[in-house]
Amino acid sequence: CWSLASIKLPESVTYIGSRAFGICNHLKEISFPESLPEFSEGIIECYEKDSFIFTPWYEEYLENNRFVIWNGVVLDGKPVNGVLEIPDTATGIAERAFAFSDKELTSVIIPDGVTVIGEDAFGECRNLETATILDPECDIFMDQYTITANVIRGYKGSTAEKYAETYGYKFEAIDEENAYTSPVENTSKESLSDCMKGDATGDGIV
How much is the mean pLDDT over the chain? Predict the structure, then answer.
C-alpha cells in the first residue's frame, strides 16, 4: 500500500500477521493498542518479525535502537560483532530474530528474564561459538537450528542442557555464582599476567 502514511490499531486487534504492513514504503507512524498480548501469551500468535518490514517506521526504529522490541519481545537486532547481550528488559526472543546474523557474532548472553526462545531465533549464525542461557526453565523451541552455537552454556538440569543434549551441542555448566564468566583461582604454573588479554578465567580461552 504505497500511499499509507500512518495507522492507529484499535484495541480489538490481537494479532498482526506476516507482512501485514510490509513494504508500505511511506508508513512512518504506527500507534499500537495496549490489548496486544504480552510474550507469555505467545508471540508467534501475535506478531511476525516481518509484519512491518521495509517500512520507514521499521527502518527508523532499527536505526535509532539497537533492538526492535515490542512488549518485551526481541524481534530483530542490528548486526553485531563479538558478544551480543540481550537487554534485561526482554522477556522473549521471537522466531528468526537473529537468524543469519552478522558473521562476526561470536557469543550471546540471554538474561534470566527471557523465558521463551522462538524457532530459529539464532539459526545459521555460522560463527556463534557460545550461547549462555540464564533462565534454567527457558522454553526453547526444540529444533536443531534454534540456537546454532558450538557450545550451549546453562545450569545443570536446565532446559539449555536438555536442548544441547538433544541436538548434539556441547554443553558447559555454569553455577549460581558464575553466571557470566568471572575470574577463578589460577592453579596452573602460569601467572594470570601470562594469559591472553581478555582471558577472564586464566584457562587460555578468551
Answer: 79
- Partners of 152 in the beta sheet? 131, 171
Going by their DSSP bridges, the two strands 67-70 and 73-77 should be labelled as antiparallel
Let me know the angle formed at the C-alpha of 130 by 91 and 88, rounded to the nearest 5 degrees: 25
Q: Tell me the C-alpha to C-alpha distance, in Å, between residue 145 and each of 96, 117, 155, 166, 193.
A: 10, 12, 21, 12, 39
Q: Which residues contact 84 (CB under 8 A, 6 or more apart)?
A: 77, 98, 105, 107, 108, 109
pTM score: 0.67
Q: Which grid cell is 163?
A: 536442548
Return the residue matching grid coordinates 504505497: 2
Tens of pLDDT, residues 49-83: 677 878 898 888 777 777 777 778 887 776 666 88
Could you report the per-residue pLDDT of 18-41, keeping only the tens digit for each?
788 888 999 999 887 776 654 433
DSSP for 78-143, please give it.
----EEEE--TT--EE-TTSSTT--TTEEEEEE-TT--EE-TTTBTT-TT--EEEE--TT-EE--S
**Sign of the CA dihedral running 89, 93, 97, 103:** positive
pLDDT of 93-111, one tens digit each? 988 888 877 667 889 999 9
8-state DSSP, 205: -
Cell triple for residue 118? 522462538
